[in-house]
Structures are given as structure tokens and as C-alpha cells.
Amino acid sequence: MTRRYGLRDDQWARIEPLLPGRVGHVGVTAKDNRRFVEAVLYRYRAGIPWRDLPERFGDFRVIHLRHTRWSRSGVWQRVFEALSADA
């Protein structure tokens, strides 16, 4: 069963290698990239402000800052291109 705002496992498998912070990638290993991506998806799909993200995703300020950094560095563009076949 697919969670309403979550990624399917096959979608996650396609984008995981594109994300910064993965094991073996230069820099700090991310705590939980999937939870972060699902927080961003939840926010946009639900149409809520960042501050209204459920606590299970963590501090909304940290999520927003990370989202902004990924946007500037082109990470989201790569993710959207990888998932464009699902549209």
C-alpha cells in the first residue's frame, strides 16, 4: 500500500543515488534523506506552510534550509528528471 504523501520504494530506489549525503559521497552522511524528501513532498502536496509540517519530520526550519540548499545546487532538478516518467 502506498502512503498518501510518501514515495514508493521503486521511486526511492531511482532517486536515492542522486542525493547528496549518501554513504560513500563526499561530505557529511545525511541522517535520513528519505524522511527529508517525504517531508518536502508532504508540504507541497498538502499545500501547507513549512511551520505546519508534522513533528515526525523534524524541525521545519532545518527542513526548509536543506530544501533551499538542494534547490540552489540543482538536486531537485535531477530528482524531477528521474521521476518524470511517472508524471
The helix tally amounts to: 4
As for the number of domains, it is 1
The total of beta strands comes to: 0
Give the SSE order as H and E letters. Answer: HHHH
What is the overall pLDDT average? 84
Globally, the shape reads: globular
Helix content: 40-55%
Q: Compute the CA-based radius of gyration.
A: 13 Å
- Ends distance: 19 Å
- Look at the helices and sheets and give the structural class: mainly alpha
What kind of sheet is the major sheet? Answer: none
Low-confidence sequence ranges: none
As a percent range, the share of strand residues is: under 5%
What features would you highlight for this structure?
mainly alpha, 4 helices, about 50% helix
Can you describe what's shown?
The protein has 87 residues and is mainly alpha-helical. It has one domain (9-86). It is 51% helix and 0% strand. It is built from 4 helices and no strands. It is globular and about 30 Å long. The mean pLDDT is 84.
Summarize the helices and strands and which ones pair or pack:
Blueprint: H1 9-15, H2 33-46, H3 60-73, H4 75-83
